Amino acid sequence: IHAYMEDSDTISGFANKVVGSLPVVGLIARVFNAEGGVGGDIIDFAEFRRRVGNKCSVNESRAFYEFQDRRGKAGDPLYVLLCCWLAAVGAGLLKTEEILQGVARLRISNDIEFEEENFIDMMKKAREKRAKAKADAPKIPMGIRAEKAVEAIYVCSFWKDGIEEDDVRLLVIMLNAVFPSVGSAEVERIVKEKAKSVAEGGSDETSKVLEPKALPKEAVQLQMKDLEFLRKGIIDR
């Protein structure tokens, strides 16, 4: 029922973990599934998109592009799905503020590849820290993950604009495609509550994200190094 995550309590989820724990078999599985999701590996954005896309109906797919027509570049289907990926896979590993600051930067920079790598790195470090502390991952309900996705989409695609009726309709369709187990009635409630909060001036987490914070110095240096490498490659040609 989850389009993007394996439930560890299911037979398939258990089998996936067993395969991932076997040295040779796990290695082979990872070679043929570079997108992640083998054993306890983090499901990366490419695999997330594939899983959601395979579940989408024609009407749901159309909603993503109608939303882009309304919101422009900030409503790009990839941006919307990145917000959903962060909430679906990153909840419990990433702080809400980290998610919102990241998608705020994305709105300005349009550098989705960099933000994806940055978030993957943050999630891996969070997992490593939890493993060292021998702390179990928090079990966050799908409804809460859907709420975080709506918050992220608002910051990325709306910023400070209001959410109109047509936006609500499209958000409900898109969120239902990504979080089918939450239920359409609950998804609609979440989206409408967000629209109402925005209309009333906003009093939640998104109101704290006034301007995207700068990345750590190390992350900026790494990005500049990559850009310089690409620039050099173009000149050499």
UniProtKB/TrEMBL annotation:
Origin: domain of life: Eukaryota
Listed GO biological process terms: photosystem I assembly
InterPro entries reported for this sequence: PSA3 (IPR037736)
Protein name: Calcium homeostasis regulator CHoR1
Annotated source species: Genlisea aurea
Species classification: Eukaryota, Viridiplantae, Streptophyta, Embryophyta, Tracheophyta
